[in-house]
Amino acid sequence: MLSCHGALKELKGSTDFVFVLAGNPNVGKSSIFNRLTGMGVVTANYPGKTVELNMATTTFKELRIGIIDLPGSYALSAVSEDQWVARRAVLDTSPDAAIMILDATNLARNLYMTLQFIDLGIPIVAALNLIDEAEKRNILTDTEKLSELLGIPVVPTIATTGQGLDELIEKAVEVAGKKSEIRYNVSYGTDIETNLKKLEDLLSRYNFRIASRALALLLLEEDSEFIELVEKNADGRIILGEVEKISKDIEQKYGEKTPIRITRERHGLAGSIASQVQGEITPAASDKLWAYTTSPLTGIPLLISVLAVIFAFLFYGGNLLSTIFSNLWAAYMSPVIDGAFFSLFGSGHIGRTLVWGFDAGILAALAVGIPYVLTFYFLLAFLEDTGYLNSVAFLTDRLMHKFGLHGRAIIPLVAGAGCNVPAIIGTRVLTTMRERTIASTLITLIPCSARTAVILGAVSLFVGWKPAVAIYIITLALVFFVGVGLNKVMPGSSSGLVMEMFPFRAPTISNILRKTWYRFKDFMFVAFPIVVVGSLVLGALYETGYLWRLAAPLSPVVENWLGLPAVAGLTLIFAVLRKELALTLLVTLAVVIYGGGANNLLRFMTPTQLFVYALVNTIYFPCVATIAVLGRELGWRRAISIMVFTIVLAILMGGIALRIISYFHLL
Amino acid sequence: MEADTSRIEEYLESIYKLQEEQHPVSTSRLAEHLKLSAPSVSEMVKKLTGRGLVFQSEKGVCLTDDGKFLAKKVIRRHRLSERLLTDILGFKWDEVHDEACRLEHAISPEMEDRIAESLGNPKTCPHGHPIPDKDGKLAKEKVKPLCDLKAREKGIIVSVFEEDPKMLKYLASLGLIPDVCVEVEEVAPFGGPLIVCVAGSRYALGREVASKIKVK
Known about the structure:
The complex is a heterodimer.
Chain A: E1 2-3, H1 4-13, E2 17-23, H2 29-36, E3 42-45, E4 52-60, E5 63-69, H3 81-93, E6 97-103, H4 107-120, E7 124-129, H5 131-136, H6 143-150, E8 154-156, H7 165-177, H8 190-203, H9 212-220, H10 224-231, H11 236-254, H12 258-278, H13 288-291, H14 296-345, H15 349-386, H16 388-401, H17 410-415, H18 420-426, H19 433-445, H20 449-462, H21 465-489, E9 498-500, H22 509-543, H23 546-551, H24 555-561, H25 566-574, H26 581-594, H27 607-619, H28 624-634, H29 636-664
Parallel strand pairs in A: 1-3, 2-5, 2-6, 6-7, 7-8
Antiparallel strand pairs in A: 3-4, 4-5
Helix pairs in contact in A: 4-12, 6-12, 8-9, 8-11, 10-11, 14-15, 15-18, 15-22, 18-28, 19-21, 20-21, 20-27, 21-27, 22-28, 25-26, 27-29, 28-29
Chain B: H1 2-19, H2 27-34, H3 38-50, E1 54-56, E2 61-63, H4 65-88, H5 96-103, H6 109-118, E3 144-145, E4 154-160, H7 165-173, E5 181-187, E6 194-198, E7 201-205, H8 207-210, E8 213-215
Antiparallel strand pairs in B: 1-2, 3-8, 4-5, 4-8, 5-6, 6-7
Helix pairs in contact in B: 1-2, 1-4, 2-3, 4-5
């Protein structure tokens, strides 16, 4: 992942103009970005932030133009991560123009952030998007008047068809070319403006690398980041003293806190402009049909069915694809790869180790990546684009709160039952690192389809379905208690749900495919090398025989505490590659050590041992693809903590299960 | 006489607004707000007491029911004028407050009705403050948390108590600020979140957030 500072600098250096795309969430900003740019999108983030910036270049009339897609946000107040990143990126790049994407069906709310951009003093062009949707709802906008009232060009656009986008860029180039001539027409109430002017005059004597008007407003709005910035100045105290005095004046006059008053002015001004160009709009009656998704009576059954479909899709569809893929690989690719390596490096340690990495390793990455990750991304993009994800969040918020999460976490959690890897990447729908860490830890505990294969193949087949179900119940209970526990233990608290409920929008297939592809590409880049390297290391250890020596210290735990044969412990280590390998290897090793009849596992392990084995395999240590993704998404420190935690938990649970079962003669 | 009426109205309006933060209102605070000297304010308060519009207690001045009624009428005319100026006459935002201060004393009851009608009986001024109805009534005065409202119930935000200033600002940027009208659209079961409508947008608010927003 690129760092923003470097990526932004590079973009600025290699182009004639840099524009930022700004707007509220779900106004078609990404569609416009996709239409304006090609496939060469670069993603970067600020250290410690999960919200990413996408940027790309395009050419327009022989001009090279860099476009930065800011995260969708409602304001530039930096009170949430998306707002912080958007604001930081604007201040860091000082773009040649900002392209504001406005939702014509909700103009007043969208104009709020436009006013903030105007205050920043950046050249602006507005795209009045979704005019087709607005027309359907009888909302007509006088764009000329809007342009006149704001003092910026306004271009009506339809992102889904690309209408108006050429004109949009043309206008942006135009305003960028004559920065000095910008004249905005907007001003707040007289008292606020007089006070602002005073502060502006004072601030204009210093260089804080931000427009004086913008800084004056930010200080009056008590923005901690900029108060700190000013404090560092030699005259900081004098300036802040003046700010306080002016703020008191405003407070006295209006009987409310200055930041609230400024917010009210901005909302009021935005609303007044909107009503002047659109007339009085009756508030959007939410789509009748769409209301069924949030009404408990119909929404909950629908939610359960949707979750069941996702699960079934990943479980059956994913498994089927994975099996087909693995078989095809074994039939066509393995012989070629193995043959090539053996002929080049001989069939000694080196050749065999390389085969581990480049045959088994690549297969492990692809067999997870294509059937599970790709499928899940497609489903997720679909749910996101329709707006259904928000209905889901609304309905499950209460339950998720017990874990310190909120409603949006349910989708990745359920997806975890198919495959942990896409599920962990899916936690990006959560906003804070705390939420993502909790959700990811819980996901690693949820039995994915590979672990289910072990539970079914070892326990259900040889011991009975009841113990198999018991393993599920135990893991679900663990998920619950670990969730509640982490919520108590981890510093911070859940932020509380505040989320816009979008009206239903028909998703466009091209948008979904693009989203799916970007995310999938990202996954392959990250997971692939780690899985291959991990496989190479494991292969080398195995081929050289070091693995047996490394496994030796484990035998007290495996044999004494868990009561398993030492050889079984070894297969658990191999399962790091792919969880279902545990079972395959167990059978293979059993045959090697105990002879042909051992493929009936009961001949070499007791039902209790099989139960403990499957339980430990389910809880302990995520597979290498999951580890790769955990490291990528949460950082290696958190990923390793989660790994250690699950190992300890698995060993603990396995030993306790063994003792309870033996004591009560349960199996 | 006319000048006198507008002065009385100005006083009543100020006392009404100040009462919301401090009850009763001290004469010094009133003088400060009206930018007048304390003696002249005291004299006027005496006059108002004589007309039965205010009564004086040890701590300051309170409006009588008649006084309250008149104050709300003035506020109604002020806020309607602001709407008229922004929505129909296309005045610039920074001019409306002062213009409305002059208009509020000059509008006859009949004109007030006509303005309200031609604006489609708006419920709030451009700043989001509620407009009292013709009989001087504001929406229900009883304050309760937003999460106590049922689906389809409306309320006006009185305060957003939030220890977390970031959340407070975030809510404010969405338009959830005092004196704004909200309608609850849906309530999730088992103490789940609510969907509320504010100024044409719909938001889901978690219960712990909604419990910190007081409405009336």
